[in-house]
Amino acid sequence: MRKISVIGIGAGNPEHMTIQAINALNRADVLLIPLKGDEKAFLADARRDICARFLTNPACRILDYAVPVRNADGVYEDGVRDWHQAIAAIYERTLLNDLGEDETLGLLVWGDPMLYDSTLRIVDHVRAAGHVAFEMEVIPGITSVQALCAGHGIALNRIGLPVEITTGRRLAEGWPAATRDALVMLDGVQAFKTVQDPDAEIWWGAYLGTPHEILLSGRLADMAETIAQTRSRARAEHGWIMDTYLIRRPAADAEEDAA
Q: Keyword S-adenosyl-L-methionine, does the record have it (predicted)?
């Protein structure tokens, strides 16, 4: 039976590749490299660099595919669903047209497949369509969350307190009610500016794990504009940006004791 190997490749540093990921890479018969246009060519080049460093299977074929553009009009969830279906069709065609019945398709996933990445959901679309049978394995990888905390030398959680991992879109709608600590990913709206707590602190990072890595931290009220300007300059220079940040508000011990 055909197989899909979903391989977490880390946050941008080729040395994030685990031995398990390298072994999975070399079991693949076909590797798919997503292309997201000239602005994000770095992402494809990083995957090719990983293949050049670690791929020792001379029979493995590397295929590129152009990632469909998501429709930003209308309902967000509908646009995402249609986008995923379009990518699923590419995976399906690759399985049917480019793989033998006992071969493996490798999908190189930025970070870890389980954290704010849709590859596993897209593979589920392929399975649900029922046009091709396959097995699947998932290889974990280092995430931008881990790279952020390592870069700043901090622990993700405070003792006894939860952390909510969310998106900029959600944070812009209001602070998560169940936590004082929020880890924010996929923030295209600079939602950190909406947090008004004067005692909140932020640890921010962009291009984590890559040669372009930027790290900034401090009191949010003091750092918000610096981060916004740094983010704008970096996006203009590189044509794209991926950033992640942790915001901590003072633990509400007094409020909890009173309750």
A: yes
pLDDT tens, position by position, for the chain (259 residues)? 999 999 999 999 999 999 999 999 999 999 999 998 887 888 999 999 999 999 999 999 999 999 998 888 888 888 999 999 999 999 999 999 999 999 999 999 999 999 999 999 999 999 999 999 999 999 999 999 999 999 999 999 999 999 999 999 999 999 999 899 999 999 999 999 999 999 999 999 999 999 999 999 999 999 999 999 999 999 999 989 999 999 999 986 434 433 3
Scan for tokens 């750092």, then name that residue: 223
Token pair in block for residue 6? 């979903």
Residue 217 in contact with residue 201, Cβ under 8 Å? yes
Q: Where are the domains of the chain?
A: 2-142, 145-258
- State whether residue 98 is helix, strand or coil: helix
Give the CATH fold of the 145-258 domain: 3.30.950
Sheet holding 181-185, edge to edge: 164-167, 181-185, 243-248, 201-206, 214-219
Q: Is 45 helix (H, G, I), strand (E, B) or coil?
A: helix
Alpha-carbon dihedral angle through residues 21, 110, 192, 169, given to the nearest 10 degrees: -120
Hey, which residues does 63 pair with through a beta bridge?
32
In CATH, 2-142 is 3.30.43.10: no
| pTM score, whole prediction | 0.92
173: its two tokens: 């709608």
| Cα of 16 vs its chain's centroid, Å | 14
